[in-house]
Automatic annotation (TrEMBL):
This is Putative nuclease HARBI1. One of its GO terms (molecular function) is metal ion binding. It is found in: Cytoplasm; Nucleus. Its cofactor is a divalent metal cation. Belongs to the HARBI1 family.
Amino acid sequence: MSYAGAVWLAVQEDLYRGVCSEPTPKILNSDSSSNSADPRATDKLSHESISRLDIFDDYFLSQCFHFTRQCLTFIVDCIKARMKKDVFRPSSDANSIEAMTLAALYFYAHGFLPRKITAALGLEHASANDAVNTVSKVLEDMCTDFITFPGTYDDRTGVALGFKYISGIPNVVGVLGWLHVHVSPSPAEESLFLNTRGYHSVMVQIISDVDGNLLSVEQCCPGGTQEEAVWESSDICQEFNRLQHGQTWVLGGKGLCKAKHVLSPVESSRIKTNAARRFNTAHSQVWKSTQHVLGCLKTRFRCLHNLGAVLVDNLKPVARTITACCVLHNISKKFSVPLPSKLVLEHLHPDPEMKQGEQEDFVDTEEAIEDMIEMCFGNSGDEEEQEEIKTIEDIEKRHKQNGDHNSHEKFF
């Protein structure tokens, strides 16, 4: 994935330091034989200039926040630097920013924020929600630093080669998918949020690379919105329309067969060759990688299982939380942070059924990718298959002509 140079170098430097000098975990109560600190014993932290990260051991940090110590240190330092230089935010001391950040990370990891955690971090529980909102806004502002689409020829080539290596499909620079997060809309707006799997959600458009890094995150909208409409109105689609990304594709489901710049599978009724079948198999393997990416997000950030009440004209709070989790996902990938529990693959939403007129429009897309399919997935055996199919079609044509022979005689 392509990152801003300074940010990526900072990550590398932190990784290097972590490898060369592993920090020694410190426990607040040194007389205890427990492997984790007791949060209830840390009320006095709010009055001491000591890092919370130095109080808890690695296991406790991992279980509470779903990140390693090195990754947490990097996240906290990034947010501190961002908040200190932002003249539009109230200034806070370093320990206060750290406490706010850890409170937000706990909420992302578990979907709730108990009093014992806010007490351990030295925060007033009444102000915890404000802390989470503030940190979410900071992380959202950092999105362009950590979630970037390959913008140069070399970057696109690198991403495309990754997809070509695992699937044989060329010129693919991302997999297009949608993250659905359960919400509770008002009764008057329920129909807008009802998705194809039968529950109410907001949906966010994501594009990921072959390694599961997020390249683009945008377009938070009600879960009942048509995917093609979301894609066509997105900023990244407009960039493709302006040919900013060259002659490349994003790979998407068959429900996007009419969408521009989206490489969808060949519709089953139009498959005529083994090459098309092999292409669909390769397409399916790459497309299903979306399940893994979405599953990783919901396994590490359990708040994404349900974000509660929402209004259609005010999706910013939930969009901010989702974007914050996506930023943290990419950071965790760079630090190779393991998932906190067994990965549960996300079920993909069924593609909408195409009407007859829409199926006819699919021909243009099929013709556009036909040469690529034959070049990359065809072989000499297909030539014989094509001849056999042509022979069968000729025979059927002759039978049809013979059946109408009497009517044809009138014209000769």
